[in-house]
Design goal:
The complex is a heterodimer.
Chain A lengths: L1 H20 L5 H29 L11 H13 L2 H33 L1 H14 L8 H8 L3 H25 L3 H9 L4 H39 L4 H10 L3 H29 L4 H7 L1
Helix pairs in contact in A: 3-11, 4-5, 4-7, 4-9, 6-7, 7-9, 9-10, 9-11, 10-11
Chain B lengths: L2 H22 L11 H12 L4 H32 L1 H6 L1 H9 L6 H8 L3 H25 L3 H9 L4 H38 L5 H10 L3 H32 L3 H4 L4
The chains are: A mainly alpha, B mainly alpha.
Chain lengths: 286, 257
């Protein structure tokens, strides 16, 4: 069994640490703090090193100002309410586009996944359309939809549709055929079939697609803001760069990076929560 | 479904879609969605092969160089970090931050740093698409079979020999998978860098066509990106199959009974 082998392969290197942790009830907590120390030190070290190099002019400050300036600029833009407002604008484009992609991707994915012939029939078209970067449609969208939120919605939707669609198809196809026939033989009602047959197969793949799409949606939203000038954090990066305000430029880049990390963490967490029963998550936990 | 039908269905679907588009758009008077026949004509005019040298070649050149840079950088740094778990643990927050930051944000600082030339574009493509390769390499290297590693050590393999014969072959499938995820990012960055500051390239051509309201030309550029994207993804799928056929991961071969 491949699953068994995977579990064995995974468990072996982790076991010693896990055993050591069982000694006392306080040990795990202390260990966790100890583990957080090197990353913390390396982040602080990087920031301090940059600060010193730039303050002493060993590194030119023409593109990268000292981290303290960037931090100050971040605090200021958060305090005066401009950054939160722009962040809402970015998140609005992200949420609307991603939401539409979830609805369309899941519906279409379930359909294609349960009709293999149709799926084969469409695969040629999908393989052609999918690699076209949604960004390449920016010029078209500018003249049809303008440079406002609509362009952002549409491009985020197109960009984040594919991972959800493809993973939903994979999930739907992975429904256990024996279980499906068993359900049919025993006359399990539709609600039961959805709850016990479809959901356990589709949910893991769907959530993986959703996590990938959530990152792509942010990338596309920021790109549209940066290139087209649609309102949001990305536009501000461009504005700051053109004004030569490098501290503000890096402050907004950092804010977007933090936003990306938060979105990623939230979706990872959700995946783990919802799928705590699934093999993939149990392996990761081990 | 017989094998022949399986193979033919996608072709039939694509042909049907193109035919439908062709006839449905035939009488189109819409400014934005011209008849496919006109787009096809524009495509032949531009890309067979008048602008291949002037626009497609520079785009693909920068794309290739950038991706090559990403592969070299990602594999070298990935092997380094993968072989040094403590170092990787220490730099995890920075990696996480850089990976989560949308790669297009490299553009404004790079414009300040390098100006608008081809070097800037290659830099943005390389640094923007390096993360999936780097992370996949780390995963691949760390997943090296410990039995195979111990065996190599017992047989007296040195550091480089171990890397060459055990670690790298083991990590290769993972690296190729990383390159696969990097491909669309590199392609987006290729187009984006040409939309912002360029004098040639497919992205530049699409933008120029839009600004002169030559919508059929613009569509021909979008179609070209579809063809290029499909060709690249097919090429990589082929490489992936080759790699899987050649490299039997020792972690699986080693435990077979």
């Amino acid at each position: 069994m491949s699953a068994d082998r995977a579990v064995q392969g995974h468990a072996a290197p982790v076991a010693p640490g896990g055993l050591r942790g069982r000694g006392s009830s306080h040990a795990p907590r202390r260990r966790r703090w100890g583990a957080a120390l090197p990353p913390l030190a390396s982040v602080l070290g990087t920031l301090v090193l940059l600060e010193v190099l730039i303050q002493t002019r060993l590194l030119s400050d023409s593109v990268l100002p000292p981290p303290s300036d960037i931090g100050g600029e971040m605090a200021a833009s958060l305090a005066d309410g401009i950054a939160p407002r722009l962040m809402l604008s970015t998140l609005q484009g992200w949420a609307v586009g991603l939401g539409a992609a979830v609805v369309a991707g899941a519906a279409l994915g379930l359909l294609l996944g349960s009709l293999p012939t149709v799926e084969r029939l469409m695969s040629g078209v999908l393989e052609f359309v999918r690699p076209i970067p949604s960004i390449a449609l920016i010029p078209l969208c500018i003249i049809v939809l303008g440079i406002g939120m609509e362009t952002k919605y549409l491009l985020v939707f197109i960009g984040s549709l594919w991972p959800i669609l493809i993973h939903t198809v994979l999930g739907t196809r992975s429904v256990d055929l024996v279980a499906r026939d068993t359900c049919r033989t025993y006359g399990v009602p539709l609600a039961g079939r959805i709850r016990h047959l479809m959901l356990p197969s589709v949910a893991p793949q769907f959530l993986t697609g959703l996590r990938i799409s959530s990152a792509i949606a942010l990338i596309v939203a920021i790109t549209v803001e940066l290139i087209v000038g649609a309102p949001g954090l990305g536009k501000q990066v461009n504005v700051a760069q053109q004004a030569g305000d490098t501290a503000q430029m890096w402050a907004y880049i950092s804010l977007i990076g933090v936003l990306g990390m938060v979105i990623n963490a939230v979706f990872m967490r959700m995946e783990r929560r919802v799928l705590h029963w699934h093999d993939s998550q149990r392996l990761e936990a081990a | 479904m017989t094998a022949v039908v399986r193979l033919l269905l996608p072709v039939v679907g694509l042909a049907a879609a193109v035919t439908a588009w062709w006839f449905l758009s035939a009488g189109s008077t819409s400014f934005y969605f011209p008849p496919l026949a006109d787009i096809a004509e524009a495509f032949a005019d531009n890309w067979l092969f008048e602008r291949v040298g002037s626009d497609l070649a520079p785009s693909l050149g920068r794309f290739g160089l950038g991706l090559l840079g990403a592969v070299v950088l990602g594999v070298v740094a990935g092997v380094l970090l993968g072989r040094a778990p403590r170092l990787q643990n220490a730099f995890q927050p920075q990696l996480e931050f850089l990976r989560s930051t949308p790669p297009v944000l490299l553009l404004p600082p790079s414009l300040l740093l390098f100006g608008t030339g081809s070097g800037m574009k290659v830099f943005v493509i390389a640094l923007g698409s390096v993360w999936p390769i780097l992370l996949a390499t780390i995963t691949g290297v760390r997943a090296s079979d410990s039995i195979a590693l111990d065996m190599g050590r017992v047989f007296g393999l040195g550091r480089t020999a171990l890397l060459r014969h055990v670690v790298l072959p083991n990590a290769l499938p993972s690296v190729v998978a990383g390159i696969r995820s990097a491909l669309p990012i590199a392609m987006v960055l290729m187009v984006v860098t040409e939309l912002v500051a360029s004098t040639d390239g497919v992205g530049y051509f699409i933008l120029q066509a839009q600004q002169s309201y030559d919508i059929t030309d613009m569509w021909s550029g979008v179609l070209l990106l579809g063809f290029v994207g499909m060709a690249l993804s097919l090429a990589l799928a082929w490489i992936e199959r080759r790699v899987q056929a050649v490299v039997v991961p020792t972690s699986q071969g080693g435990q077979k009974k």
